[in-house]
Specification:
With about 450 residues, this protein is α/β, with parallel strands linked by helices. It has two domains: about 1-160 and about 315-360, 3-Layer(aba) Sandwich (D-Maltodextrin-Binding Protein, domain 2); about 160-315 and about 375-445, Periplasmic binding protein-like II (D-Maltodextrin-Binding Protein, domain 2), CATH 3.40.190.10. About 40% of the residues lie in helices and about 15% in strands. The protein has helices at about 40-50, 60-70, 85-100, 110-120, 140-145, 165-170, 180-195, 205-215, 235-250, 260-270, 285-290, 330-340, 340-350, 360, 365, 380-390, 400-405, 405-410, 420-440; strands at about 1-5, 50-55, 75-80, 105-110, 145, 150, 155, 160-165, 200, 220-225, 230, 255, 275-280, 295-300, 320, 440-445. Strands 1-3-2-4-15-7 form a six-stranded mixed β-sheet, with helices on both faces. The relative contact order is 0.18.
Length: about 450
Amino acid sequence: MRTHSTRRLLTAVTAVCAITLAAAACGSSDPDDSGGSSADDVASALAKGGRITVWAWEPTLKKVAADFEKKYPKVDIELVNAGTGDKQYTALQNAISAGSGAPDVAQIEYYALGQFAIGKSVEDLAGYGAAKHDKSFTTGPWTAVKYDKAVYALPMDSGPMALFYNKKIFDRYHVRVPATWDEYVQAARTLHKADPKTFITNDTGDAGATTSLIWQAGGRPYKAEGTDVTVDFKDAGTRTYTRTWQKLLDEDLVAPISSWSDEWYKGLADGSIATLSIGAWMPANFTSGVASASGDWRVAPLPQWTKGKTESAENGGSSLAVPKAAKNKELAYAFTEYATTGAGASTRVAEGAFPATRADLDSKAFLETPFPYFGGQQANKVFADSARNVGTGWSYLPYQVYANSVFNDTVGKSYVSSARLSQGLDAWQRSSAKYGSEQGFTVNK
């Protein structure tokens, strides 16, 4: 196995051909074209062996690839980090457009998978045997990769949300862990009044965080049926989110600090940022990036929009897909299946990934794993409950990558001006709808 990083000059992902309907020919013209492959073909490919290239940034795949090569000595896996998120998607689309250089397997986040599926640039894996895994994965991730009878990827992980909170700070100011978002606002007021340098959280505008909380509130602003899409940020769930979050902004209760910045890590370490509402993949980032605060933090269920409910949402997570331009599709599928199910999935969980597989999520060993960073708390029990309670019916736009790219130009203005969040969401809706229409989608508003 060889692992290396690839650096390349990248154009904006929105300029790449496969996002648009007009360029669907960048992939196969037949959405059901999987080369007539079957589970028997996959077994034959494993027996024959060969080399596949895997584009992924997720570190646990290094151990999985090594294990796979040990199990199948005739197989050679080249792991390439072609950049994370948008950078890799641009490189992938460029390779597909050029007709050369595409990997055999690609890591694709759930929110971005739709653009590759509608562009017909990834394989429908149902014919390879993927459909048999319909009960293997939790609802959120499986829904994200399956469209009608097609399965365009297999889930790698998931990001059920939870509330990470600084117990040391909450105890110091006698603040109870909020069970509802109304209580969260009150906790924000109490903390900031006690110490004006302490904020309940940070926020400078983030598309993923915003859509996740709208999801949890019951909002379903996006609908997609093939080339027919809906963008509507006026539903009740979105308004519920907006009303509450606007209070935090109006009262200056959130720190104007960008996530993943040095200032953000410092705020998490010294307690001036007291909570994070984020996906279950976050613990490793605390351990590596906020080591000095070990023992201060704990995990609790996400606050509820309605008292007594247990609704949750996903935040992040990604899948493994096989591009139609892959040279060795059967072998690529074999690795994809191994890495996301069975032994491969368990290996990744042991390496720190959060499972999308029901078997791993329900295992006693996983649930009872203590987290020294969180004072020995069995935090996976909180995450697992969240995964089971993810709201159904959520979908992303087939061009969500573009939509997210203009979030700061629209909703982001509500964080730096007198514009209201509702106004920012209206602007985001108009921008997203306009782009969709320009690309040939039928957009309902």
